[in-house]
Amino acid sequence: MKKPSGQRRALIERMKELHCLYDISKLFSHRSLSLGRLLREIIRVIPKAWQYPERTGVRLCYGGREYRSQNYSPRSTALRESIEVGKRPRGFVEVSCLEGGSRPARAMFLQEEKQLLKAIAELLGAIIEKKEAEISLRRTTHELREQAAELQNKNIALKEIISQVELERKALQDQMRMNIELTVLPLLSKMQGSETPPEDWKTYLHVVRQNLEDVTSSFSSKVSDERVRLSPREVEVCNLIRNGLSNKQIAELMRISLLTVERHRHNIRKKLGIDNEKVNLSSFLRYELG
Questions:
Q1: Which of 39, 81, 109, 138 is the most exposed place for a label (fewest CB within 10 A)?
Q2: Listing from the earlier edge strand, what are the strands of the sheet with 56-62?
Q3: What's the rounded Cα separation, in Å, for the pair 95 and 56?
Q4: Per-residue pLDDT tens for 178-223?
Q5: For residue 67, which of 83, 52, 51 has the smallest C-alpha distance?
Q6: Domain 6-148 sits in which CATH superfamily?
Q7: C-alpha angle with apex 255: 253 to 256, nearest 5 degrees?
Q8: What pairs with residue 89 in β-bridges?
Q9: At what angle do helices 35-45 and 111-179 cross, to 10 degrees?
């Protein structure tokens, strides 16, 4: 078989080199390949561009990892080029050729192959830089999505908290309004009445002040509960008992008999479900209902 001429052979070698660079670029276009898988595929492509592909081996080191072709031998003659990423050496690519035949070791590589290896190293640096940028972008995008989802969950939780605070605020407003209507305003009305002697004002003012200090308590809502069914008069007596007034003081203040006060106390205990228990009514009204 007739051997190709020197010019034709040189053209074939240049074509192989161009195919090598094209195949490496084409591999990079497969975005689904991880960086490790991409580098393993590249070392399979490189030997095809050398004049003795069956005797050519490749070693690529990057990021603390090493990738070798099947027939790479550390004892063979080798060319090496540094891989730079962002103008900093980050690894190297090495092409070895097993010695054979009559050719001396220095003749194993063509000058064009040395230039090709330099071009491959530069291409690898650009590919790795872009690949790492893609990986970083995907990681950042994933983190941003997680942060967005977390922020959305926090917004939902915040809305629930705000809603709960609003409900509690409204409940507190209603509680304060009810306490004032049931325990403060009636006493102020009595004080304004002409039938209330001035000597009773001091007692009324003490009770009003005490009720204002306890304006956020749940006393009014509990004693006015439909299930308890206390009468307005009994609520008034409850308010005075809760503030520490004795039966005698209540009788004098409300202009009723002592017996009537005792009857109110009995009915209140019965409606509150403590008529058969040894429980101090004043303490119960203040600490259990307040």
A1: 138
A2: 65-68, 56-62, 88-97, 77-85
A3: 7
A4: 878 888 888 888 777 767 777 777 888 888 888 787 777 777 777 7
A5: 83
A6: GAF domain (3.30.450.40)
A7: 115
A8: 84
A9: 170
Q: Which two tokens stand for residue 127?
A: 């590919």
**What number is the average pLDDT over the span 249-254?**
88
Question: DSSP letters along 146-179, please?
Answer: HHHHHHHHHHHHHHHHHHHHHHHHHHHHHHHHHH
pLDDT confidence of 115, banded at 50, 70, 90? very high
Where does the chain hold its CATH 3.30.450.40 domain(s)?
6-148
Residue for token pair 């009810």: 178
pLDDT in tens, 51-102: 889 889 999 999 899 999 988 988 888 899 999 998 899 999 999 988 765 5
Question: Which of 4-18, 72-86, 98-112, 219-233 is predicted least confidently?
Answer: 98-112
